[in-house]
Write a structure and sequence with these properties.
The structure is a single chain. The chain has 420 residues and is of the alpha/beta class. The protein is built from 15 helices and 17 strands. An eight-stranded mixed sheet has the order 8-7-6-5-4-3-16-17. A seven-stranded mixed sheet has the order 9-10-11-12-13-14-15. It starts with a helix and ends in an 18-residue tail after the last helix.
Length: 420
């Protein structure tokens, strides 16, 4: 009972801190605490005593303790995979956390807090409403025909999440930093949890460079049923065996929002299998079009692909929001491409003080010279950039502004010439 009470009282704080919480923890503890206390701990304590006299005997006891843990682990894994084993419903505020905690305490103490049965019923009903309001369904829903684009701050790399009314796409997954750390685990998953997203529909990997595909393995292990498409997915063998290639002309519709790959052409995609195509120009280029606006996500394409896109699509290449090609490299963002797309909002995904010096000054100047009524954002200066494409206009949120910390000093995060 104590474990159950602790789990319930800690539920709001756990959601506040981690955006997810276990609902089966009391059941797991009911099994694990006596199991470890009565079996594993005595064996370990005995091993610590025996090691003074015999290393061989101590090794045997440590092995036995490990075997005991291995024995119970499948049961714990099975419990964690039960339906509704955890809740994942977005970010709750500190005020909601405190209010929900008080309501849960009142629920647990209702017999002492209310003198009559009627008062207890009123208290339980009211507290239940408060808990439900505070803890459940915090995702701000996107309406039909609208979309929400979040370009995440993954350092020198790229990862974005696109939401429509009932679907979610992850476009690129950031970099990998070794076996234990990657952008998928450290950045993309926490963002999805903060939005209450527990089943994204699709993962698109624009191309096989590590700063775009590095976090994909983590995401696919967490969401194994997610559809995968992209280019150069060999490193995901065993995780994305049913993945398809992104190719020019492939399109689909989600909730009144149309998605279409504009690149690479089928010929280039075929050449990639023979190792005859450049990685960057093989990037999947995705156009998102809706009644509320449009966005163009470009991977790492360079001038060659940009010119081809301008030639083949002309005015239909225009987009209100542009994820700037190749992190603002001077090998991309040609004047012809910028002029044809003519974005109102451009977003550069680049790492702070990265060794490639992205974005280049010449690129920033080209965006100034060849766009009108233009706003440019950079993840190295603004943090994550979130654009809500609504029928009544765009809402742009810079995480540096939203969650500014004192150590950021006086650096302005507004999209103006000071951070161009």
């Amino acid at each position: 009972r104590l474990q159950l009470y602790i789990s319930l009282i800690m539920l709001p704080l756990t959601l506040f801190m981690f955006q997810q919480a276990s609902l089966v923890a009391p059941l797991a503890n009911l099994i694990l605490i006596p199991y470890v206390s009565l079996l594993v701990v005595p064996v370990l304590l005995l091993a610590l005593v025996v090691v003074i006299f015999s290393n061989q005997m101590a090794d045997m006891l440590f092995t036995a303790a490990a075997w005991l843990l291995d024995l119970v682990w499948p049961l714990l894994s099975g419990i964690s995979e039960l339906p509704y084993a955890s809740i994942n419903n977005g970010t709750i505020t500190l005020a909601e956390t405190i209010l929900a905690t008080i309501a849960i305490v009142m629920l647990l103490l209702n017999r002492k807090a209310a003198a009559t049965p009627v008062m207890r019923m009123v208290l339980v009903f009211t507290a239940s409403l408060v808990v439900t309001y505070c803890l459940f369904e915090h995702r701000q829903h996107v309406l039909d025909g609208e979309f929400r684009l979040a370009v995440l701050d993954v350092g020198q790399g790229s990862a974005a999440v696109i939401e429509t009314a009932d679907h979610v796409m992850i476009f690129d997954s950031g970099a990998s930093y070794g076996d234990k750390a990657d952008s998928g685990r450290n950045i993309v998953l926490p963002y999805l949890y903060s939005r209450g997203i527990d089943s994204p529909d699709m993962l698109v990997i624009s191309h096989g460079d590590l700063d775009h595909i590095g976090g994909a393995g983590t995401l696919l292990r967490r969401f194994p049923s997610m559809q995968v498409t992209g280019q150069q997915l060999d490193s995901l063998a065993g995780l994305a065996d049913g993945a398809g290639d992104c190719e020019q002309g492939i399109g689909w519709q989600w909730d009144g929002v149309y998605f279409e790959f504009l690149s690479p052409p089928v010929v280039m995609a075929s050449a990639s299998g023979a190792g005859q195509a450049d990685n960057n120009d093989l990037s999947c280029v995705l156009k998102v079009t809706s009644p509320a606006g449009s966005a163009l996500l470009t991977g790492d394409i360079e001038r060659k692909s940009e010119i081809r896109l301008v030639r083949e699509y002309g005015d239909s290449l225009s987009a209100d929001i542009l994820l700037v090609p190749h992190h603002g490299s001077n090998t991309s963002s040609s004047a012809a491409f910028i002029t044809r797309v003519e974005p109102q909002i451009s977003i550069i995904s680049a790492g702070y003080m990265n060794r490639y010096h992205h974005p280049h000054d010449q690129v920033l100047q080209r965006y100034r010279d060849h766009t009108r009524s233009h706003r440019l954002f950079r993840t190295d200066r603004h943090g994550a950039v979130i654009v809500e494409a609504r029928r009544d206009g765009y809402r742009v949120q810079s995480w540096r502004d939203t969650a500014k910390r004192y150590w950021h000093g006086n650096l302005s995060a507004h999209a103006d010439d000071r951070v161009f």
